[in-house]
Amino acid sequence: MFSLSRIQRPEILLFVMAAAMPLAFGVWQALLNNFAIERAAFGGVEIGILQSLREIPGFMAFSVVFVLLMMREQTLAILSLVILGLGTAITGYFPSVVGLYATTVLMSLGFHYYETVNQSLQLQWFDKEHAAHNMGRMIAIGSFTSLIAFGIVWLLLDIGKIDMEIVYILGGGATMVIAVFCWIAFPKFPQKVEQHKTIILRKRYWLYYALTFMSGARRQIFVVFAGFLMVEKFGFDAAAISVMFLANGVLNMFCAPLIGKMIGKWGERRSLTLEYIGLILVFAAYAFVDNPWIAVGLYILDHLFFSMAIAMKTYFQKIADPKDMAPTAGVSFTINHIAAVVLPAAYGVLWIISPSAVFLTGAGLAFVSLVLSQFIPMDPQEGNEVCWKSPRAVPVAAE
Predict the structure, then answer these.
(1) Is 387 part of a structural domain of the chain?
(2) 248 inside domain
C-alpha cells in the first residue's frame, strides 16, 4: 500500500526543487538575448552590464548565513524559488534598459540564494558514498525540466506565435506553484548537524576557494557571451536558441548521472583534469568558429564538461567539517562571483574590439584551473586537503 511518508524524504524534496528552478530560469535564459536586443535595444555594453548586475546577488551570497539566523535552510530554499519565479514572471512587462536591469536583479536574488542553500543541503543530506551520483541525478532532473521549459518556449513562440511576455509569466508562475507545493507537501526536516551561523574562512580550504574563484571567472565568459554570439554573429532567433538548449538538455539528462558515477569511480582529481583540458579546447575553438553548427556543438560540449564540476563539491564534502557546509556554501558563492561582477562589463567593452580575445582569455583561465586541480589528493579527506608533491602526499594542514 502506498505511503506518503515514502516520498516525504529530504532527497525527494531536493529532486522536486531541482525540477522547479529551471522552469523559471530556463525561460529567462532562453528569452534573454532576443528580448534584450529586440525589445530593449541592448548592445554588447548593455548586456555586459546586465550580466554584472545579475551576479551581484551571487557576490552577496555570504549574507545567507545572516538570513539563516531568522529561518531554516529548507524554508529559505523554498522562499528563494518563489522570488526567482516572481522575477521571471514580470520580466516581459519591463522592456527597457532600467526595467530589465531591475527584474534581472530580483530574479537573480532568488536564483543565487536558492543555489547557495541548495548546495549546502546537498552536502548535508547526501551521504559521501553516493553524493556524486545523486548530484548527477539532480542535474539530470534539472535538464529534463529545462527541456520542458525550452520546448514550451519554442512551441509558443515559433508555432503558437505567443508574445514573450506570456511565456515569461508561464515559466515564472510554474516555479512559484511548485515552491508552494514543496512548502505544503513536505515536513520540516531536522538538521543532522547544527550549522555555524557566522562567516567562516579556513586556510585548509584554500584550494577549494581557488578552484571556485577560477570557475566563476571562466564560467561567466561562456555563459554571457557564447549565447550572445549565437544571436549577434549567427543570427539565431529565440526559437532557434530554445532548440539548441533543448538538445543540450537531452544530453545532460542522460549523461549527468553517468558523469556522477564516473566521478565516484575516478575521483575528483582525474575528473577535474579531464574537465579543464576539455574546456581549454572548447574556449580556443570558440574564439575562431565561423560555422554555426560547430558553435552549437561547442556550446553543448561546454555544458557536458560543466557537469563534471560536481567533483569540486564532493572534494569539499570530503575535506570539510560537517558544521561548515552552510556558511562555506555562502562564502564559496561569493568567491565564485567576485570576478563575475566585474568581468561581464569589462568584457562587454573587449567584445567590441575583439570577440575572439574574450574566449581566448577563457582558455587561459581554464589552464590555470588545470594547474590548480593537480594539487587535489587522490584520496581527499580532513587532514589531507592538498597534495604538494605526489598524488598521495599528505601535507600538514593549517586551520
Answers:
(1) no
(2) yes
Give the HSE-up count for residue 324: Cα atoms under 13 Å, Cβ half-sphere: 16
Residue 164 lies in a domain: yes
> Grid coordinates in use for 63?
549574507
Q: Supply the range of the domain harboring residue 241.
A: 7-373
- Are residues 301 and 282 in contact, defined by beta-carbon separation less than 8 angstroms? yes
Q: Residue 308 phi/psi, 5° resolution? A: -75, -10
**DSSP state string for 270-295:** HHHHHHHHHHHHHHHHHTT---HHHH
Q: How far apart are CA 121 and CA 81, in angstroms?
A: 15
Place of cell 548586475: 53
Question: Burial of 119 by CB count in 10 Å (0-12 exposed, 13-18 middle, 19+ buried)?
Answer: buried
pTM of the model: 0.77
Distance CA 363, CA 310 (A): 20
Read off the CATH number of the domain in which 292 is found: 1.20.1250.20
Q: How many domains does the chain have?
A: 1
E strand map for 21-70: none
Label each residue of 128-197 as H, E or C. CCCHHHHHHHHHHHHHHHHHHHHHHHHHHHHHCCCCHHHHHHHHHHHHHHHHHHHHHHCCCCCCCCCCCC
Instruction: Report mean pLDDT in 10-residue bins for the chain, 399 residues.
Output: 64 92 88 80 76 80 83 92 95 86 93 89 82 85 83 80 87 94 89 71 88 83 76 76 75 84 87 92 88 85 82 87 80 78 74 84 91 89 76 44
Degrees to nearest 5, angle at CA 278 with 276 and 281: 110
